[in-house]
Amino acid sequence: MSKIEIIGLGAGDVNQLPFGIYKKLVHAEMVVYSRTLDHPVIESLQDEGVRFEAFDHMYEEEEQFGAVYERITNALLEQAKAVETLIYTVPGHPMLAEKTVQLLLEQTEIEVEVMGGQSYLDNLFTSLKIDPIEGFQFVDGTSFTRSQLDYRHHIIFCQVYDRFVASEVKLSLLEDLPPDYEVIIVEAAGSKQESITKVSLEELDHTMEISNLTSVYIPPAPDNLLHHTFDHLREVMATLRSPDGCPWDRKQTHESLREYSIEEVYELVDAIDAGDDNNIIEELGDILMHVILHSQIGEDDGYFTIDDVIRSVTDKMIYRHPHVFSNTKVDSVEDVNRNWEELKKAEKGEERESVLDGIPKHLPSLAKAFKLQKKAAKVGFEWEDVSGVWEKLDEELKEVQEAIEENTLLEMEDEFGDVLFVLANLARYYKINPELALNRANNKFRSRFTYIEEQLTKKGIDIKQASLEEMDAYWDEAKERE
Asked: Nearest 5°: CA angle at 210, between 100 and 195?
C-alpha cells in the first residue's frame, strides 16, 4: 500500500529541523512535494540538492482557500498511487493549522504518517511574552466567524497569507474594537528573520509585509470595550443582583417585574410605529435587560439560568424549522405555518382540551378576541367569505342601537362588546392585527390633539374656552401636516 509521509518544516529556520528529519529530506531520492515554496527552510534544502514540487500556483487559480486545499489533497493522493512512499512538507507542525493534513488523515485510500516538525507557537509566545494559560485563541485568518472570537483572551491569527486576508481580519475586528486599537504583527517568530511590529488596527492591511510566516496578535481587550457583548451584559446583571449590588435589583422577583416587562413591549411597539431606529435599539435593549434579569433571578433561586433559556429557544427554532435544518420540503408560507402547528402539538406531548387553549390570560381584550377567532378559524369555524362578517357587523350595530334605546347599561356593554369582537374578526380577514391598528389610531389622535393644544397656546387661547370650530380647523391642519 502506498504511503504519504508528512513532514513539518518548523517555524522558519533550517537549524530548527530535528536532525533525523533533516537527513531524511537531504537524502531523499525522489521529488519532495510541498504545499508552498514560500518558506526559508525550502531555500536551504534546495541549496543542498533537494528537489521540491509545490502547489503555489493553485492559490492563484482558485478564489477560495477551501478549493485550493481540496485540489492539493487530490493531487497528492493521485501522485502517491504511483510510488511506494511520497514525502509532503508543510510549514510549522503538520498538526497545527494545516487543512491539507486534516484532509489527508480523513481519507482511507492511502496510508498517511505524520513525521512531526516544530510548531512556531512556542517561539510566538516567547516573542510576545504572553502566557497561554491566561486564555488563548488560535484562529485561522482564512476561515473564521466573528462570533468565535473572545476578546478577553489572547488571540493569534495565523494563515494571514496576503493583504486580502489581512483586510478581512481587520474588517471583522473593527466590528468590536476601535480603529486605534493596538495589534501586533509577528513575522517568522523564533528565526533570524523575526520581526515584531505594532500598528493600529485600521492600519493592519496597510503597512504589513505579508508572507507565509505572518501572524497577527490581538491583545485582550479591557472591559470598557466589551459593553456590546452578551457575556459582559450577563456579568453586569449578576453584579447588580449580588450582595454588594443594587438594592432595587436584588429585591425584584418574577412577579414584581410583570408590569414593567409588559410596558417595555409596548414601548418597543411605539418605537417601531414611529420608525425611530435609535429608540428601537433602546427599547430592544430594555426587553433584553428584562430577559437577563428574569434569568438571573432564576439562577439566584436555583431553578434555571440564561443558558437554559437560550437552549430552550434554540432547540425550539431548530425543531420547528425542519425545512431549514433538516430535509423537509415546503412550497409556501402556508406549509411553514401548518408544519409549525403540527410540530408544536407534537412537542407539547399532549392534546389540549380545547382548540382555544394556549391564549395568555393577561392578553389585552382586543388582541385576545383576535386570537380566539384565529384559532377557531383553523378548524373551519368562520364565514365562507368576508361578506358574512360585514353583515354580522351591521347586525351587531343595530343591536347596539336597540340597547341604547332601551337604556340598559349591561345590555349596551354587552352589545358594544359584540361589535368590537366582530371588528377584531373583520381585521383578521384582512390580515390586520386590531391591537396594532388601534394603537396607531391612538397615537394619531394624540399627535393631532397635541397639535390643537400647541396652536391654541400660541394664540393665547385656553383650550377649555376654544370653540369646536376652532379645534376642528386645527385638527384638519394636523391631518394635512401628516
From this structure: 110
| CA dist., res. 111 & res. 454, Å (int) | 85
CATH class, domain 230-304, is mainly alpha
User: Per-residue b/e over 107-142, b at no fewer than 16 CB within 10 Å?
Assistant: eeebebebbebbbbbebbbebbebeeeeebbebebb
Please state, for a pLDDT cut of 70, what percent of the chain lies above it: 97
User: Would you call 201 helix, strand, or coil by DSSP?
Assistant: helix
Provide the CATH topology of domain 122-224.
Answer: 3.30.950
| Residue 77: alpha-carbon gap to chain centroid | 39
pLDDT of residue 351: 64
Residue 480: is it exposed, middle or buried by C-beta count within 10 angstroms (0-12/13-18/19+)? exposed
Fold of 3-118: Cobalt-precorrin-4 Transmethylase; domain 1 (3.40.1010)
Q: Which helix (H) or strand (E) holds 195?
A: strand 195-200
Give residue 210's pLDDT band: very low, low, confident or very high (50, 70, 90). low
Residue 329: the pLDDT is 87
Strands 85-90 and 32-34: parallel
d(CA 363, CA 360): 5
The pLDDT, as a whole number, for residue 435 is 87
Q: Phi first, then psi: what are they for 193, rounded to 5°?
A: -90, 10
pLDDT digits over 440-465, tens only? 898 899 999 999 999 999 999 999 99
Q: How far apart are CA 325 and CA 315, in angstroms?
A: 11
Count of CB atoms situated within 10 Å of the CB of 8: 27
pLDDT given at position 285: 96
Neighbours of 293 (CB within 10 A): 19
Whether residue 359 contacts residue 368, with contact meaning beta carbons closer than 8 Å, is answered with yes
Query: Could you tell me if residue 12 is left (phi over 0), alpha (psi between -120 and 50 degrees) or otherwise beta?
Result: left
User: Dihedral sign, CA of 98, 104, 106, 111?
Assistant: negative
pLDDT, tens digit (0-9, with 9 covering 90-100), for 327-372: 888 888 888 888 887 877 777 766 667 878 878 887 888 889 888 9
